[in-house]
Amino acid sequence: MSKKKKFAIIISLICISTFFILYILNQGWERTWGGNNDENCLAMALDSSNNIYLVGSTTSFTVGSNDICLVKYDNLGGQQWYHTWGGSSIDIGHAIALDASNNIYLAGSTTSFGAGSYDMCLVKYDNTGEQQWYRTWGGIAVDDCRAIALDSFNNIYLAGYTASFGAGGYDMCLVKYDNSGVEQWYHTWGGSANDYCYAIALDALNNVYIAGSTASFGAGQEDMCIVKYDNLGVEQWYRTWGGSSFECYYAITLDTTNNIYLAGDTFSFGTGSWDMCIVKYDNSGTQQWYRTWGFISSDYCRGIVLDSLQNIYISGFIDHFGAGSYDMCLVKCTSLGIQESYRTWGGTAYDTCSAIAMDSSENIYLVGSTESFGSGSGDIYLVKYINPGISIIMFIIFITIIITGVIIAIILITKKVRGAGGREKRKKLEGEREEKWALERKLKERKEWERKQAEEKIKKEREDKLKRIEQENQNIVNQAYSKFQAELWDEAILLFNKSKELCSQQGWREGVNYAERMISECEKFKIRTQLEKERREKLKMALKVSNRIKMEIVRDALEMDSTSFNKQIIQWANEYGFKIDGDYLLIKDEDKDPFINDLVKELDRKFKEWGKVETEKIGKM
Q: Which run of H or of E encompasses 137?
């Protein structure tokens, strides 16, 4: 072999090796975590050593049907430990924060502990993963925590929504604890309709910003909403943003001058059905600009971070480009919100992204759930990308090496052809090139055909999966409504919550709203049934202990106006022969049981009338 050929081979090997080295470095690494069932990660945080903490839910490693899970990785992707928390029912981790000592605070919702069907929960661990304490917060209805933040004094702020307190069906809710877990205060915000909070951030002065969606205020059916409080919990201002349809904020961050960047989904603006959206405000709440990003199908945004140059990174999942039904997506924008690049990650099934984080070297981490990889039907996945600035430098180096190698190879080949010098030799080379080009065209056509076939297959799989999910949700709703009609309120609430989570994962806002309305109705019927039971027992007890009962007690139980009640009492007095003594009824012992039976029948009749009216209202939703 000639020296020139050896040299050309060496240059080629260097180029190929450089390509693979740069590819591996640029990709970073990826990890999955889970068992044989379903796991989902909803939030992530990094400590001062760039260790990674993931929080979400697990059905593989549980005490109950669904437990909160906490998983720790080092910055090289090595798992350190995991812990679960929960009781006999459903417990979900939605948010995580770390203090300066790397103590860990988890926040979410629990049906295993607390006062209501769903309560907010807060769990503290030390930096070795040992649980320190936990707290729950809520009333008799649904109270859900979706975000957490710590101020400079390590006070803890929980943000979410409540149906137990406030002005409307669901209201935004902000709860403050000190670092020992002692509640300091809480505030709700909202109107007569449903208002939800999904994100929280604090500025350098410990002012608090909560963000989500509102159906009580704004221009559309549901608008994005941000509310600012000072560090004492006093509201400073609020802003809404949106069009005629649906919008919602899911993430918030602040830059070094306390400008506010909000990220979420919009149905009113953009190119597709749902598009990712960024809205920037200054610290006084004046809108600076907004940007949308997406394609003709649905694109959902769930996270936002800024680098040291104020470049913006948003993360989420899309179902138009990529390898599968849903793929996770990372979009980089300039400080003005202009797109620079985007990437997707995933397999042939559903892969969604729930959160984004950036370490001290400005490497990027995405986390969510995958059905394409891992050991179960759905696993937690974590992907690391190295600093995009380093990626650009490596790319430039790689291109330079490739161009240099190509130039050297061309020079060597040209010299060799000229050395042969003959016209026949050149014709032969040209013929070989034509054959090569023809073969390449055929290969290209074949690959294009295979790509179209694969796209059709993926499209059909996506449609089939969507139909299965729709049918699954319809079955859940039917079961829930059957439980509702059977007056099994708690079972109905659990099933409607399951439908709500399923619709939320698919971005079906109408399904989420229906499930939430039905949960509120179940709570209403449950409370009314308990009140009716208490009224009956109160009447029976009053009649058993005395032959003399105050008429006001009977009238309040029957919820009658004075005129109707007086007619009814006169009718009963004639029928049973008891006497009316001022504000009291005097009843003989032998007339008590028949009179009690008549009262219970009247209570049953009025309760059924109320239930019929409420059920007809539900039918019109």
A: strand 131-137
Pairing of strands 548-550, 579-581: unpaired
Q: Which domain holds residue 557?
A: 546-619
Q: 70: which residues sit within 8 A by CB, 6+ positions away?
A: 53, 54, 55, 82, 83, 84, 85, 93, 96, 104, 106, 125, 129
> Are 9 and 52 members of one domain?
no
Buried b (16+ CB within 10 A) or exposed e, 417-450: eeeeeeeeeeeeeeeeeeeeeeeeeeeeeeeeee
Write phi, then psi, for 231 (nearest 5 degrees): -75, -5
Specify burial of residue 308 (Cβ count, 10 A radius: 0-12, 13-18, 19+): exposed
In a domain, 521, yes or no: yes
Residues 407 and 444 in one domain: no
Cα(355)–Cα(277) distance, integer angstroms: 15
For the record, the structure tokens of 570 come out as 């006169």
Q: How far apart are CA 426 and CA 433, in angstroms?
A: 10
- What is the model's pLDDT at position 614? 66
Based on the fold, state whether residues 13 and 85 are members of the same structural domain.
Answer: no
pTM higher than 0.85: no
Confirm whether 514 is domain-assigned.
yes
Q: What 8-state DSSP symbol labels residue 423?
A: H
Least confident range from 210-219, 539-548, 560-569: namely 539-548
pLDDT (tens digit, 9 = 90+) per residue, 104-146? Answer: 999 999 999 988 788 999 999 999 999 999 999 999 999 999 9
- Same structural domain for residues 407 and 474? no
Q: Hey, what's the torsion of the CAs at 417, 422, 427, 430, to 10 degrees? A: 10
In a domain, 112, yes or no: yes
Residue 518 covered by a domain: yes
Give the separation between CA 99 and CA 104, rounded to whole angstroms. 7
What is the number of domains present in the chain? Answer: 4
Going by C-alpha positions, the residue among 44, 92, 67 that lies closest to residue 501 is 92
Report which secondary-structure segment, H or E, holds 507. Answer: none
3-state secondary structure 197-210: EEEEEECCCCCEEE
pLDDT of 390 over the 80 cut: no
Boundary-marking domain end, from 502, 530, 558? 530
The DSSP secondary-structure symbol of 192 reads S
If you average pLDDT over residues 48-58, what whole number do you get? 96
